[in-house]
């Protein structure tokens, strides 16, 4: 089991969806957690607030910091907040949005909105946490990319999303080279994941069809992504860097559409 006892993790977009699953998993494995998000409440109705769940279900400590990942100063502020628990050891750049826009209708505003959150936010997160980790002797950064970094999606209006997530994946390798050996930098690539805004925006038949395309014959869950993230964050992955791990039930490699 990945042991994160004594470590402090920051999770951007950690209040909802995949970020919530990552936050709870890291806390269950012993890490104190800083949830860096625009809102402290999950987007899914009738869901226990993430920090409340950390407090009720784990022995770890947690705090919330309001954070816009497109603002470098906000990310530095999240890193500063982690000092309350001893300083950042693990940075998970998870915050992201789905913004469907057709290729020939893309505006500057569309481009900036999606790329700023999904790519620039991860880039800034690596900067803010990476600098502090180097000062403190090391750490682990995990960027949340997507299967869209490996397999292009045309519909519904996902080309720009693919471009941003592809950037996250290749950026991960370059930053690993820059920050190593003190700081390990890796990525996870979730597939279609249940209990997220993406799943909620698809009808049940579409979700079922996607599940049937995987080897595992089900959709992923936020905890599936959390478990892989916890491994990459832990000392068990001490020789793993510049890597990207698909968490998609085999969908990309066995031939999704």
TrEMBL record:
The keyword Cell membrane does not apply. It is an enzyme of class 1 (oxidoreductase). Pfam families: adh_short_C2. Keywords: Oxidoreductase. CDD domains: SDR_c. GO terms for molecular function: oxidoreductase activity. The keyword Oxidoreductase applies. It comes from the Archaea. Gene3D superfamilies: NAD(P)-binding Rossmann-like Domain. This is SDR family NAD(P)-dependent oxidoreductase.
């Amino acid at each position: 089991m990945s042991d994160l006892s004594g470590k402090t993790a920051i999770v951007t977009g950690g209040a909802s969806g995949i970020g919530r699953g990552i936050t709870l998993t890291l806390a269950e494995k012993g890490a104190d957690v800083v949830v860096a998000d625009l809102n402290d409440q999950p987007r899914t109705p009738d869901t226990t607030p993430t920090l409340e769940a950390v407090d009720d279900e784990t022995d770890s400590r947690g705090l919330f910091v309001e954070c816009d990942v497109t603002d470098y100063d906000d990310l530095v502020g999240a890193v500063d907040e982690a000092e309350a628990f001893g300083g950042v050891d693990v940075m998970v750049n998870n915050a992201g949005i789905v913004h469907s826009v057709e290729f020939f209708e893309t505006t500057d505003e569309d481009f900036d909105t999606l790329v700023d959150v999904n790519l620039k936010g991860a880039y800034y997160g690596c900067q803010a946490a990476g600098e502090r980790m180097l000062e403190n002797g090391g750490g682990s950064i995990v960027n949340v990319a997507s299967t869209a970094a490996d397999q292009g999606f045309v519909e519904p209006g996902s080309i720009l999303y693919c471009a941003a997530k592809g950037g996250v994946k290749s950026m991960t390798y370059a930053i690993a080279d820059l920050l190593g050996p003190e700081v390990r930098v890796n990525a996870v690539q979730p597939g279609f994941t249940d209990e997220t805004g993406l799943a909620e925006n698809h009808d049940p038949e579409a979700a079922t069809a996607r599940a049937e395309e995987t080897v595992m014959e089900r959709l992923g869950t936020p905890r599936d992504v959390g478990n892989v993230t916890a491994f990459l964050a832990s000392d068990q992955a001490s020789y793993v860097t510049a890597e990207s791990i698909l968490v998609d039930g085999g969908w990309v490699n066995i031939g999704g559409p």
